[in-house]
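[Meeting: bench + compute handoff]

Bench side (C.D.) handed over the final construct sequence. Compute side (W.E.) agreed to return the predicted structure before the next meeting so the bench team could plan truncations. Sequence as handed over:
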Amino acid sequence: MPNESIDPVFQLIKSLTRSEKRHFRLFTNRQGSNEGLKFLQLFDTLDQMERYDEERILVQVPAIKKVQLANLKANLYRQMLASLRLYHAGQNLDIQLHEQLDYARVLYNRGLYQQSLKMLERVKVAAQQAEMPHVALLALDFEKLIESQYITRSLRGKADLLSEEAVETVAHVAQEHALSNLALRMYGLYLKIGHARNQHDFDRITEFFLTALDKIDLSNPGFYEKLYYYQAQVWYSTITHNFRACFRYAQKWVDLFEQHPTMREQQTMLYIKGLHNLLISLYNMLYYSKFMEVLKKLEDFAADPERRTNPNTEMLLFLYIYTNRINSYFLRGRFTEGLTIIPPLLENLDRFQVQLDSHRRLVFYYKIASLYFGSGHYNKAIEYLTKVIQYKDVSLREDIQCFARILNLIAHYEAGRDEVLEYQIKSVYRFLGKMNDQQQMQVAIFQFLRRVGDIAPDQLKEAFAQLKEELIRIAANPFERRPFLYLDIISWLESKIENVSVQEIMQRKFLQMK
């Protein structure tokens, strides 16, 4: 049987662009050795495969023995990384600066201290201008090493100047790390709990967040300090339901890059992530006109032939553009129209399967299921909700796991699949019992669906109306609004009461919003 395990060398080859592959072949052929020829043979064989198959490699490349394969793959991996580093060095200032640090070390080892110091000074200045204090600190440490060991006849006061520079740079690095750690912690909390579930969640998260900020001096922030501060505020505001503050800080995040075009080129990933978070805040605020304006900016950026490109950027552009295109269909209630996006979406999910994490894949499956549900294709909705429900790690986005189960239960009811409805009710009941915190909306819907089979047909409309009134009352509590962001159950109830489709109800609401 072929070995279908995920192989890092195979994954790396499959991530290469056509020009990167061409560059690697030229890079390998420069060695002019038999070993280099084996690299190229192994590379070409793996490149032609749809999936990793060790037995096929040994058959197609007889020169490679089974005992050699592991070492040859390890060498091939290093060679590919070296080739990619050389290929992309011109587009990555940090690679260039680290390379110059290496050259300074070579000059130092040869006793050419003045030349080494001149190169370090250039690295330090370039790093400071590019807001890379961690690289500047490496250059400063090296400068101090040379100055402390050798008589270089540098200008008087050099020791004091280097010490002051080092202290200032360390302070910026420390603040960057403190703020980036805070932003990462907030993002981790969002992945775990979604939005604050109750007052206890809100108080605990707010205390942690404000305590962390109290320790940071933002009187003279650099680019990255501002960026990480805005990121932390975006995640904190998202978790605590403050979508206006989320919009404000996401806009500051995007504006920061607009004010520093070179940073937008160097940190494209962070720029488009800012646009995405701005779009999410506008979606949560139901601010459609501004939403479409920002979405167009993101799509125009993706279509710009002059922008820098790499597999990571392309994956993120796919992720953010498709997520927000689906959200645009949700805002307008155009579910049937939105079904046209599913085939290219699934194609890209396969294309970027290595780069996409489980969280993002689950969110896409939930959104696809919602499109099918809103357009009345309940069995297809169940198919994609099952993908979410069957994911083993239920601690990842517990909120989506819960809403997927409730929507799945409603879809079974709508599809008339009464034969498995009782099993689905028991499944949801077990899951809700294991949840850290059940919300009133989830419990109310579950209890209603549990007894809906016993309600007489002529009393159903009244029962739907009663549930709607109960949910409107529940939604008045800020901490109970979270479920309604993922499941517009009130529109579904209105569709049952008025005997029209869900999308007709949502299209009507959209027209009233404009």
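W.E. noted at the follow-up: The first helix runs from residue 8 to 15. C.D. will use this when planning the next construct.
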